[in-house]
Amino acid sequence: MPSVSKHSFDPKASAKPLLAALSGKTLARPPVWLMRQAGRYLPEYREIRAKAGSFLDLCYDPELATEITLQPIRRFAMDAAILFCDILVVPHAMGQSVAFKEGEGPVLGPVRTLSDIARLDVGAVVERLSPVYLAVEKIAKALPPETALIGFAGAPWTVATYMVEGGTSRDFLAVKSLAYSDPAVFEQLIDRLVEASIAHLSAQAAAGAEVLQIFDTWAGILPSKQFEKWCIAPTRRIVETLRKQAPGIPIIGFPRGAGVGYQRYAGETGVDAVGLDTSVPPDWAAETLQGKVALQGNLDPVLLVAGGAPMREAALGIIDALGGGPFIFNLGHGVVPPTDPDNVVDLLSTVRGG
Ligand code: CP3
Q: In the predicted model, what is the mean pLDDT of the chain?
């Protein structure tokens, strides 16, 4: 029995399985897309990437970003396209220096003091990211009618980790020290990121994104009180405002590593769906979370590298546990570069019962 939709009926939506699942319907076969479905594991991506100046140049080029977004749709007929971009365009648009160094990941000029934070220009975000919204418009026009378009942003906490650390971190010493020792200063940063994320997500919705996903990749590194303060509360503020600015648009939250914190996250942020990381037991999630929200996940990306029977059995086990309620098949984190695209074909036919 389909459950009651949280959203008003949209005749277009019924043609898109992803939107049906997000509105609370249980489908005979789950819609499927993969986090990082566009990227270095695809030869056609590597070809464009080799010709482009830098990764950020790709994000700011509407034609190339459109082309890269469509690559996995053409190859695999995923049920959703996710805009090709990055969560770090937001700090970049606020005026922080951001570069992607080969083999090193992102490198940012760290933001640590009140005056660093005061220099961040939230008002400039939508203007500076206008090429990204142009890409959203182009993609929306190019997609097949059954394919939904997902826009996204990083959650304030996760984006703040990169901004304060100056890049990826092992121990998160700088960002946690700031949050614990100087919460009033850290809050100023989080507040700016809440505002910037709302503006960025709203602009993507206005340009044609039909679903929004909030990536909280580093939600799992905080003790529970801080998880509540720096992950749940800011996400709730973003969701509440988007409900007014972009009514009816479903929102997926991905609090990676939140553990038992998934329960509070699902109950308190107001999101429509929650992305499960690889470690969450699907039967626990079905029992504890699926009555409140639709679920998405959570095959280990390394099983997609391994392929074969172990991958297929794990995928079917996940569908067995979660397919009895509103569910979207995905990975528990992004596709990794050594993945063989043929394994993606095999995974999709397994999920689709072929
Ligand atoms: O999912 C998609 O297909 C859409 C595109 C997308 C990218 N990044 C492209 C990308 C999305 C949704 C992201 C989100 C993102 N970016 C997150 C949250 C999700 C997650 O993976 O945890 C985070 C933490 C980032 C920050 C980021 N971007 C890092 C740490 C790195 C370097 C590590 C890496 O994988 O290279 C990036 C670069 C990046 N973002 C690449 C791509 C395709 C690789 C860039 C390249 O081609 O060299």
A: 95
